[in-house]
Amino acid sequence: MVEVIVGGLISGVVVLIIAGLWKRRHAPRRWVREQDKIATTIEQKDARQELTVLREQVVEVARARNVVIPASSTGINPTIVTFSDGSVWCYFNDHARYVHAIRAGQVPPTRSSRGTPSVPVSRWKKETLERWLAENAD
Hints:
Blueprint: H1 2-23, H2 27-64, E1 70-74, E2 79-83, E3 88-92, H3 95-104, E4 112-114, H4 126-135
Parallel strand pairs: 3-4
Antiparallel strand pairs: 1-2, 2-3
Helix pairs in contact: 2-4
């Protein structure tokens, strides 16, 4: 009788061990996928940070050399562009809105224009930033 109870307990423990192993059979793959996801997120964050630093460097070098470049822009019509020297220009897509804004006194006539503004540093790609820094290095 004792042998049957001990045998049953051992069988139960073996079944629990096998069930636990079966349940965790995908755990290593899941862990690897999670680590890959974390690594990808870190790489993307580092790439964004590198772009931010490059953009700041370009604007700093431009200011140090008294080179005026478009630093940032907001809006659509008008597109308001801030340049590295601190000046702000308004660019309009169409002539009618441009004339209306001038007549209404919404924009300064000497700091506004009709047309497409230059692409600001805030939208430059990494290659463009690095090339500009190389061309304007000391």
